[in-house]
Amino acid sequence: MDTLTVTSIALAILVGLPFTILLVAAASAKSKIRDSWTEPKFDRVALDPALPEFVQPQIAERNPLESLDVFLESWLSYTERSLGDFSNSRRIRQMAVNKQTREANLLFYEYAEELAAELNSRVQDRIIRYFETGILADTVSDDDFVPLGTLKVPSMPLPFASDLSEPFEDPGILESPSKPTLEGTELPRVIELLPRSLREKVRADFLKKRIEVWNTQLSRLGKRQEIVTTAFSNAELDRQERLKDQQIQYAEAEALYVQAAKTHNLKIEMILQGLDVGEKKAVEEYALMVLGRGIYADEVQPSFTVLYNEVDQELEITLRAPEAELIQELMPHYKLVKSSKSLVNKGINKTESKRLYSSVVMQLMIRAAHEVCESDRAGSLKSVSITGVLPDKISGTEVAIAQLAGTPDEFSADRLRGDTASLFLSLGGAISKDPIEVVPLALKGNIRGKK
Hints:
The protein has 451 residues and is of the alpha+beta class. It contains eleven helices and seven strands.
């Protein structure tokens, strides 16, 4: 209960109800007889508008394959956690308390060998399968065509737009307040409890106070008009200056965008027209677009250069193969070492490493040849030849480790089935006897002579 209420109750007891009603009425009417003018604010939170920016369009991406390294690490982590959890299990700890060391070790060995078998099986199913046939089989059915027309961009950016474009509302001339009248003077409802004579006296007193406030408002009206007009003028001037700065920045960015878009669209159009007539540069640029869109696990991602022979209509591709070390890194073979109670990677033998790496190179080459042939909707290619290279381990000079050539029909998807090595040889391909050691390809003449 507030002080005013307590006082009112006390007065009602000591003095009487009428005086208390007057007190309460005066308190509740106080806010109605004061000058409550507030200076208006002209302000606007305005973010800088988005400026035009030319972004090189990208060929529509396709879902990448899961990283082989991430796959392997996840299973290694799972295996290590499982071994740790088993070693600290209640059953093993209880056997240690009971001095059943031999029995505990046998249980651990059995569990660890099961984990090793599971890990090796997962690697076999995922990584070895990918190295043997997956590079080609997992993606050969995907359409490698690049719709160049979709790479064009609008010649003009989106129009300028700013939060500052709309002017502030002009406050105009401030309206003079109306002179209070007896009839228009509202009293608190509690006044109705007073006798009629007292009600009229209170109403007259309130009117007098309101007229005093009204006179004050009239005397201040001119000053207030000046304040409002000045605030509005300053806010408008600031808005216009900020808007002008934004428009200048936009115009500069727009000019850069228009030029970049024009250059880009012209390039795409030249490639499109060049493909129709088999123009060398157009065919090469398009082939690199196609090859750059191939879907591979990160660890086996190749790089390419191309050269187009307009006379023979043959595309010559150089494929830089991934480093051979990836086989050993991604092809663990774990066995239990009882003395240390740990799973140790014994790796795979050299013969198996060479077989798997050769399979990787052969699949990459077949896949690349298939990609460019399938995407050649303009019929620019009569044949494709592709050479796989690795840097020499001493000099760094590129060494040819594999070659393959054929016609678009030979690289059609319906013919690319079966064992990788058999498929590669059936297509007339040749590969180094030891690509891991970068032994140069032993081939008399060229690949076509071999065929």
